[in-house]
Amino acid sequence: MAGEYDPTQIAPLVWHVGSGDPFATSETWARFYYYNLVYTPTFMLDGWDQYVGTSYYTVKSKLDNHLLDPSSVSIDVAGVIDDTDGEVTVDVTALYTISQLNLKVRIVLYESRIYWGGRWFDHTVRDVLPEQSITLSQPGDHVQVQRSFTLQPTWVAENMGIVAFVQSDVDKRILQAANLTEATVSLTPHALSFPRGSTMGYSALLMSNMDSPQTVVAYAEVWLPNGNPYPGNPVKGPVNVPLSAYQVRQLQLGHHIPMGAPLGDYIYKVTLENLGGDVIDEDEFVFTVTE
Questions:
Q1: What is the largest CA-CA distance in the chain?
Q2: Every domain of the chain and the residues it spans
Q3: What phi and psi values does residue 231 have, to the nearest 5 degrees?
Q4: Less packed terminus of the chain by CB within 10 Å, N or C?
Q5: How many angstroms separate the Cα of 258 from the Cα of each of 198, 199, 203, 288, 289?
Q6: Interatomic CA distance for residues 202 and 290, integer angstroms
């Protein structure tokens, strides 16, 4: 099922527990007890929606419904996984007012394409890095978390991945999650509000997470205060952006705001795709047009 969604939509993790399970660890068991679970398999969506069973249609229906809910934060994950070690940087930004308390940034290493006992296993949790307590309350609040890690000799680096998520330990809801992908984009608006007739400016940070050159396709879209997409989307691109191995590119961009632009809150989103048309990352921010 995971293959039916792109990595900007879901960030699946499989926490193995059970006597004799070769992938069970003290950390996976801790996660099991964190939710006070009893049965397996149990699907936990966004940290709170629990389903015990294996019905494809039930899980898919729940996933699709969850994807309709807007998130109050954005997450960007950048990092490097080498043969023996790696590092990861997680940027978390509040998009709206946040009421949840006791927020934690949690970072998980997983491995896919593991063959054992005549079966293949994907998204298998291998390690949980030290968590970070954070405070977010107002739009624009930002936190950065950095971690380094070491791979065990039996782990295959090219099959490893990273998921980061923000979770409240009060109600256990996950506000947002993100994968480490081939490339990432991080947006920072120059302000939170812009008057009509001015230029809405922002910084775009593009980062390659690959050890070889690649080309990504970038484009930007806007959603109006009434919730509808701007009829002229995309407002930038699509444009091919070449990136060398682990390259970081920072761009200063902007748009003129017409005098007749509706007042209110806009959503601005930049999407990255590979040359095959698969979405690999996206980021967005909210800005307000004023008189």
A1: 67
A2: 2-179, 183-290
A3: -60, -25
A4: C
A5: 8, 9, 21, 13, 10
A6: 17
